[in-house]
Amino acid sequence: MESSGEMVAFPLLITPIDTNYRACTIPYRFPSDNPKKPTPIEVSWINLFANSIPSFKKRAESDDTVADASAKAEKFAQRYSEILEDFKKDPESHGGPPDCILLCRIRELILREVGFRDIFKKVKDEENAKAITLFKDVVHLNDAIEEESKRVENLVRGIFAGNIFDLGSAQVVIFVDNSGADVVLGILPFARELLRCGTKVVLAANDLPSINDVTYHELLEIISKLKDENGLLMGVDTQNLLIANSGNDLPVIDLSSVSQELAYLASDADLVVMEGMGRGIETNLYAQFKCDSLKIGMVKHPEVAQFLGGRLYDCVFKFNEVSSC
């Protein structure tokens, strides 16, 4: 479904009044902090985003769909660097104080303002194409496991680390993350198994491009390539598979603002899955829902690992069961 119209709160999110919902997991500052002086945590995240500028500039320079890409990439790098330095001088500048959502948003806005739409498009297409060629083999290997619990454990090992919940859910909403192997070889085989068990599955993908995250339109294209002429996904009916445009345009997500289409499709789901570091760890790790929820992702930033008391590349799997009492 296309994203259009006014954004709304995700209906399964327990109301902010009840939970003091804050999208960002890490507290960047407290009320007692000087509003005109960046906190040490804010500075560390400003530096993290500053360190990523050369790689983003290189990606932008190689975007052959944009005229004068090299000059525009330089303009992006200079402008974003200036804004990050401004935050160090005054955290309230440019709509601050800064957090991972604001820093991501400003980066994407500058890229679009100077003329770039999707600097990761080429690598996403390449990774999707490779993963699509492996999809059948992955599914065949899983289908060969006769015992259901072991088959499910094998399916979710790379995503959920073991048989963390059963397949009794009637409807599942999964916020997907990266293109390539992540979505094609991780999420889609699992979604197919849920469909085979009679579960309705809603896959929610970004509206606009942001780093290598799969977009709504890209996900539609991937699934169309994987279906056969009868609309089956390796022999499984896909009538209960719905693709939703989340309305999001960042690698992180604030669930107080999603598309009306997603809100409608997710309204009666009994499991929500936030997949990926951006959506399930850097944001929404402590988000509370009206139904069971699972947050899953790999820790790829030292700042996040330090906050969680873990190590770089640790995997986080956080399952919250809502009591039926």
From TrEMBL:
Protein name, UniProt field: Damage-control phosphatase ARMT1-like metal-binding domain-containing protein
Domain of life: Eukaryota
Gene Ontology cellular component list: cytosol; nucleus
Keyword DNA damage: no
Domain Damage-control phosphatase ARMT1-like metal-binding: 169-316
Any one GO biological process: coenzyme A biosynthetic process
Molecular function per GO: ATP binding; hydrolase activity; metal ion binding; pantothenate kinase activity
Cofactor requirement: Ni(2+); Mn(2+)
UniProt-listed SUPFAM superfamilies: AF1104-like (SSF111321)
Keywords associated with the record: Hydrolase, Manganese, Metal-binding, Nickel
PANTHER family membership: 4'-PHOSPHOPANTETHEINE PHOSPHATASE, PANTOTHENATE KINASE
